[in-house]
Specification:
The structure holds two protein chains of two kinds.
Chain A (H helix, E strand, L loop, with lengths): L4 E3 L2 E4 L5 E6 L6 E8 L3 E9 L2 E5 L6 E5 L5 E5 L8 E8 L8 E2 L3 E5 L1
Parallel strand pairs in A: 2-11
Antiparallel strand pairs in A: 1-3, 3-8, 4-5, 4-9, 5-6, 7-8, 9-10, 9-11
Chain B lengths: L2 E3 L4 E5 L4 E3 L2 E3 L4 E8 L6 E6 L5 E3 L5 E5 L4 E6 L8 E9 L7 E2 L3 E6 L1
Parallel strand pairs in B: 2-12
Antiparallel strand pairs in B: 1-4, 3-9, 5-6, 5-10, 7-8, 8-9, 10-11, 10-12
Classes of the chains: A mainly beta, B mainly beta.
Chain lengths: 113, 114
């Protein structure tokens, strides 16, 4: 079966712009989580969605937001981009929040210039 | 707050050497423990996980990990590494109740020399 699909793979944006990243989970998976990976901070949790509801949120500013659609696809948005937002953004899906069998996508590499 | 420490930043081994990567966590409650691997240019993959029961967990590709509750540790081991094990290894922890997001360690880069 198809894995977790993230689009686009690469993005270059300018400071102050906004960006939207997309994640399509594995078919049948209804829980989607987002993580930010940087060389300095490592992997940090952004938020988790299940059944179109945000269940949990990490310690990121309000510029970072997300949503989940009825088909479980998820998007995350970052507004007013800063240089420090440059990172690999990873999406992970699982059947539901009680299932810890997270499968990660390949990520979207965002570069802010 | 939960935290995970991986003390080895970069480990270099020759093929056939034994591997042990350290992982310690800090959390007051009951946790689930994971090891993920990220091969060059690939996505994070689950190597093994521990929820409860036998503290010695066997994963894919010959890896195993032992949960030692008294030491808050979950070290990863492999008796004989191969060049193809060259990758970055991440230890992660999540709470068993409440918010179940993963807290990751900073990772250990393993280089295996043929």
């Amino acid at each position: 079966k198809a894995g977790v699909t993230q689009t686009p793979r690469y993005l270059i944006k300018t400071r102050g712009q906004q960006v939207t990243l997309s994640c399509s989970p594995i078919s049948g998976h209804r829980s989607v989580s987002w993580y930010q990976q940087t060389p300095g901070q490592g992997l940090q949790f952004l938020f988790e969605y299940f059944s179109e509801t945000q269940r949990n949120k990490g310690n990121f500013p309000g510029r970072f937001s997300g949503r989940q659609f009825s088909n479980s696809r998820s998007e995350m948005n970052v507004s007013t981009l800063e240089l420090g937002d440059s990172a690999l953004y990873l999406c992970a899906s699982s059947l539901d929040p009680a299932d810890y069998g997270y499968t990660f996508g390949s990520g979207t590499r965002l570069t802010v210039v | 707050a939960q935290s995970v420490s991986q003390h080895n930043h970069h480990v270099i081994l020759s093929e056939a050497a034994s591997l042990e990567l350290g992982c310690n966590y800090s959390y007051g409650g009951t946790v689930n423990l994971f090891w993920y691997v990220q091969y060059p240019g690939q996505h994070l993959q689950l190597l093994l996980k521990y929820f409860s029961g036998d503290p010695l967990v066997k994963g894919i590709k010959g890896f195993e990990a032992e949960f030692i509750k008294s030491k808050f540790s979950f070290n990863l081991r492999k008796p004989s590494v191969q060049w193809s094990d060259t990758a970055e290894y991440f230890c992660a922890v999540s709470a068993q109740t409440g918010a179940n997001n993963l807290f990751f360690g900073t990772g250990t880069r393993l280089t295996v020399i043929p």
